[in-house]
Amino acid sequence: MFVEAAPVMAAHSEDQPAGEPHRAARARRRLLAGLVPYLYLLPALAAIGLWVYWPLAQTFRLSLVRWNLLPTTSPADVGLANYRQLLRLPQLYQALGTTGWYMLGLAAFGVALPVLIGAVARGLGGRAQAFYRGVLFLPVLVSPIAAATLWSFLLAPNGGAVNSLLGHLGVAGRNWLFDPGTAPGALIAIAGWKVLGASVLIVMAGLAAIGPEYYEAASLDGAGPLRRFAEITVPLLSPTVLFLVASAVLLAEGQLMFPLIDALTGGGPAHATTDVYYLLYSFGFTSFDVGQASAAAVLFFLAFALVAVPVLALLDRLSRNQG
Amino acid sequence: MAAISLRGITKTFGAAVALDDVSLEVADGELLVLLGPSGCGKSTLLRVMAGLTDPDRGQVRVGGRDVTTVPPRERDVAMVFQSYALYPHLSVRRNLGFGLRARGRPRAEVEQKVADVARRLGLDALLGRRPRELSGGQRQRVALGRAMVRDPAVFLMDEPLSNLDAQLRTATRTELAELHRGLGATFVYVTHDQVEAMTLATRIAVVNRGRVEQVGTPAEIYDEPASAFVAGFVGAPPMNLLPGRAVSRDGQLLIAGAVTAELGDGDTPERPLIVGLRPERLRPGPPGPGQAGVTAEFSAIENLGSEEVAVGRAGDVPLCVRGPRPLGLRAGQRAELHAPVSELRLFDPDSGRRLVWVPDSGDIPARQAVANDVR
To answer: Does 3.40.50.2300 match the CATH number of domain B4-232?
Structure first.
């Protein structure tokens, strides 16, 4: 009769694993294993909680009270009065308009111009490219306050380099930072000067990440330079562009414009350079109206979230599509 | 359908010479494999044909037309990249149709041809997917389809199977061979995998250090290597290359050194040689008449299933024997081996080129080219 042959194998010297471990011990081990990822996340979560979400919650609470920041007085609950008052202030709408201009300016210097520069610089040789990149990047390394001081010298109405230069060319100089017609533009130019380098660098990194073989395949497929730009560069660079929209426009509007406004114009002349962040700062720390400032902060937080969430969602989708 | 002709192609990158005066003829409808180790210049040669790399000197002709300065899109060639280079943001359908759309073909024609190619490659069900949603094998097919859809005269393939797992590679290799027969187009195929080269090629060009060492059919490359490099590159394990000397004694031509053999009548001043012997031609046992002998010490026996490879050394050079299991050799054993004298391949130690004995001339074995030598 036939019997199943046992597979031929080398003798095993190892013992069989010991019997089933205790069920309780196993459950405990599984629980611990499940916990480990959260333990790794804990420090970062704690930091974000302490410095972002806790202040955010505080802001929301303070937006419902009237208080002048003095420890000797206690906050008085006023409900939504701060919000109602805020929405009646003409200053708010002026600041919103200014913010819009700043964002447009930052979009030009932080997104559109870098894409153009990146596309052109891609064709340059390695050494020339490194040089221009360095030149463009240097302003990024200057702290905003130092940059503001530098530009206040350059833009000084009497003896400033800009006006002197214009004088040589026969153009009348202006008081750039104290003329409501020119002050917002001057701030945008300074912010643009600072934001351009980092954006160019990011665009160039984005361009470098597009493998040369796509362009090679497309050129073999018969696509000319324009079609390659439209069908390869633009779609594959779109996550980078969206990232720039998020960082160079949304983030820089808050983080870069504020020190420039504070150091150069103090929000003037006649509130011409006050944007929403500077407005809420002056509510809080010039007028010491914490409730009003917090109400403004909550509103702006929601407004920016409304813009940022779709941008980030789109960014996520685009980068995943191309992964 | 088109033949390709390269003449005197030279390309340097800085100080590195990638291609050194390469001339090569690819016949219409043939599948020529460029075989060589990495960095030998085979991919650069392919890119020169595609027009992606401009040669410093030399001429490229496709279908009789000088295309040396013609941009890639006007060369009527298609390329399958090692990375496939599928456009990641486009669906399979749009990837396949890209070349036709870029050439401004009417929409109906694009759809028709994309559907044809998709059916032929079994991609119908995947047309709506993006490249990242495909397996490696499916991506490879799409890359192939993108080349086929334009119906080019020449297909250039840069290691198209190197990103596939072993099993898929074998299956796809067979399909590629069928595709080549079916399309009748000219294929130039770059690989460092000699199994791919041997099984696919109508002819192989072995490239080394920017030069073509030998062009020939797979059998010619294997049986009659034109240089020690080709002999030592092709074969698994490759040809054993052992140092030796040619001497004559009493009008008899002898090989001395690690390998000993009698070559017959002849007279030569003593000269150094490299003696080549395929591992599968060697058998254990002392040499008889008409046989070459070599003694080796074996350190390991590798079991390949149907065959065995015995790994050892003859003197201080490595030597392998390959044959049906069991070979009758053991690790640690010192054994005599023999092979027919007709299996010996002799090379010049300095130039590495093949040496053949020409009886009539009666003097030093000439540095005579074998039939398919290209230098």
So the answer is: no
Residue B85 to residue A322, Cβ atoms within 8 A = no
Give me the helix-helix angle, B166-183 and B136-148, nearest 10°: 10
In chain B (375 residues long), the average pLDDT of successive 10-residue segments reads: 90 91 93 93 93 93 91 91 91 93 91 92 90 90 91 92 87 90 92 92 94 94 94 93 92 89 87 94 93 94 94 94 92 94 93 84 45 37
Structural domains of chain A ordered from first start? 23-62 (no CATH), 89-321 (1.10.3720.10)
State the smallest CA–CA distance between residue A235 and chain B in angstroms: 7
In B, minimum Cα distance to A319 occurs at B89
| Residue-level pLDDT at A14 | 53
Q: Is A220 on the interface with B (CB under 8 A)?
A: yes
Cβ pair A220:B72 closer than 8 A: yes
Complex ipTM: 0.81
| A286 shares contact with chain B (CB less than 8 Å) | no
Query: Could you tell me the fold of the domain covering B240-361?
Result: OB fold (Dihydrolipoamide Acetyltransferase, E2P) (2.40.50)
Q: What is the pLDDT of residue B154?
A: 93
State the smallest CA–CA distance between residue A134 and chain B in angstroms. 25
pLDDT above 80 for A173: no
Alpha helices (H) along chain B = 42-50, 92-102, 107-121, 136-148, 166-183, 194-200, 218-223, 228-233
pLDDT at A10 over 80: no
Per DSSP, A175 falls in state: -
Binding-site residues on chain B for chain A (CB distance < 8 A): 50-52, 71-73, 77-79, 81, 83, 85, 87-89, 98-99, 102-103, 130, 132, 146, 150
Residue in A217, A226, A147 with CA at minimum distance from that of residue A189: A147
Identify the CA nearest to A155 among candidates A282, A259, A276, A263. Answer: A263
